[in-house]
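Side project, low priority. Logging it here so it doesn't get lost.
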Amino acid sequence: MKIIEQRLLRGPNLYAARPCLLTVLDLGDLYEVSSKDLDGFTERLLAALPSLMAHRCSPGHYGGFVERLRDGTYMGHIVEHVTLELQCLAGTPAGFGRTRRVRGQPGRYRVVCAYKDEHVVAEAFDLALALVEALARGGSYDMTGPLAALKRTAERHTVGTSTAAVLKAARRRRIPYFRVTEHANLFQLGWGSRQKRLQATMTGDASNIACRIASDKQLTKALLKEAGVPVPDGTVVTTAEDAQRAARRLRGPVTIKPLDANQGKGVTTRCTTPDEVAQAFEAARKHARSIIVERHIEGQDYRVLVTGDRVAAASLRRPPTVIGDGRRSVRELVGIENQNPARGKGHANVMTQIALDEHAATELRKQGYDFDSVPPVGVPVTLRGNANLSTGGTAEDVTDLLPEETRDTCVRAARKIGLDVAGIDLVCRDIARPLDSQGGAIIEVNAAPGIRMHQYPASGTPRDAGDAIIDAMYGDRDGRIPVIAITGTNGKTTTTLMAGHCVREAGFRTGVTTTEGIYLDGKRIVKGDCSGYWSARTVLTSPDVDFAVLETARGGILKRGLAFDRCDVAVVLNISADHLGLDGVNTLEDLARVKGVVANSAARSVVLNAEDRYCVRMAARLREQVEVLYFALDPDNPVLLRHLDAGGRAAYLQDGTLVLADGNRHQALLKAKDMPSTLGGHARYNIANGLAAAAALMASGFSNDEIARGLASFVSDGRSNPLRSNLFDVQGVTVVVDYAHNPAAYTALAQMAHGISRGRVIGVVTAPGDRRDEDLQAVGRTCALGFDEIVIYESQNRGRAEGAAAQLMLDGAFARGAQRDLVHSRLNGREALRHGLSLCVPGDVLIFACGSSLQEVVEALRETDPVSARRIAEQAALLPA
């Protein structure tokens, strides 16, 4: 078995609304070999992965997959289930999978597996493949090492517990987020101008200055003291001798800690003798050059979480402790406690393992113990002077005990430092009493507080600290900017640019993606085909975008899925034959399912073509709460009329006027001929595109006046919308340059050309070579019928022999009965264009289907008509005007 192709579908896709790994798998000589054909295979597989017994599979009950194995199922299906199970065992559970044959390719299957972490799923699939193949060939496979490696991969890429709690709260509120970088655990929450950044529990609203203040404990104390917040007296030293002198001046137990460390690193409490001070100083110096010596505050250690302008949670923190049993040593007791599944290394678990290090040894000596001492029965033994969870401490929720005075003090402390999210460390004897009444004090303010103790306290009421942070960041907002996603076979780019132009004219900063590039507020920042996942993500992650209009093409959906979990309004323009036979899309029904991914992502409204039966069928598969709006060129279309009778909203053409129906109100928008893109009303395909854009904008809340002004001022020329019905004059011949490459597009262009022509219409036509034979022949038939004379050329062979694609188009033209003297062939676009122009006289219209760029037109004319070549270059912004 071998992998032919593998894709990470990072967003909603053809198979699921969640991220999936798609693998095209060639089974080789294991094709049509089922599990029951292999003696002992099922038993060997269950011995390697006993937990497969829990898989329900199609029978729908516990052990269902094992039933399938014993009845006989094929290797692709088995690899799917093993991949899913391995992810579960690694700690990144996933349950959705699907395996289907690749049509027309015996032995090949598409295997789809959902995932939570793409690094884990890729490694899990490779491991599943190796395991299944080894067992299928009668061998064995030791899973111990590979499974341990898979778990390490999951641990390396896992999100910390605190960050995960915030992201979970964001998901509940339907706030979208992206992981910006893995190593720094940096996330973007929200889209466009409403985005915010999150790293651990630190938000982008926390200034660099505030974070630097919080990391300087002495400066923090000075500012808090200035604000009337109780803090312990102390000073900063750089030598052990200075530390001892400072301790003597404070006349009592002292706490010694690094000036700018965190997580309790290098902190020693209750130092009373010069030797203890010197030893604590050396421990602190391992983490910082400057050391704080401050009065030790008697009492218990508390952490208060401040989010925004309120206290979200408070915890009593207890240092890591074991209880003596009279038989086991401290070392053994710690080892037993560290086996607690809730404890782990770092921040991945609810609690952290207890370390037996120099800090633990120092604390034990104060109690008269060492690591090998055996404490008496019931005697508690502490392993740390501080109670940080990151050093093995535990927490008890005490939120409800905080008096109002203490809450106000903590909020004031966070505001004084300048933090929107802060962990306030305070020490006092009784948290239920005001600090002033008991000599308590705030000892630190933390800029990126861990929230495990609040989410998962060892005792007391769990507090949703993650939700409190999200609430402080967003309130009742969801962080989304409006998104219109546009798909279909023909007209996507023009409709997207139309809608984007209208939105921008209405005063919004727009982000637009098309097959021509990415546009931010009307300026193209990236050139090329930008109708897929990464281009949409560029717009959604831009802080300068208030409204996104995204062309969403078939290829991008199949290769990476959608870049958004949902859009506000989806538009499906039409479904016609194009790209069939590629990526498993063989029929119009298949193509409609791909385009339907966009429709199904709509949260508010879907705009559908009432004159396209595949679009109409999509309405029945939409969620009940999603509104359907139709558009149609024919005002008497039955689907449109039924929809209008039911009070539905729509856009249609009536006597040359675009009309918007908003419930029972039907209002004229503007004359079609007043839209520059319609070429005086002759380009009916751009009228349809305008209707679709108008319906989408109406669904998005724009007024009729805003929509009409936008459509009336949108120009589709070589500068603003290259290769989309761009008109040029070449010595009296109207040359229309368009990206047409399928029968539906050529039919529409021919209709428009006859409408504007004062003579004949010549077609210089092509289609990419990766289309099926029947599709290329259909292009020839359509063009022979639509144009008075045609010149066929090859633009992109894409694997075909030179001349083969052109010959298929010629065959189609002649099969339609075209006269041989009216059908010509050239092997490249420049020759074809020049020959087409030689067939024209002034007043004729020449349609040039250009598969590359307008530069091809300029180069074709440069030698024979340099004046026209330069004028076209200037008009298309290929040269300075």
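Brief comment: The chain has 29 helices and 38 strands.
Revisit when time allows.
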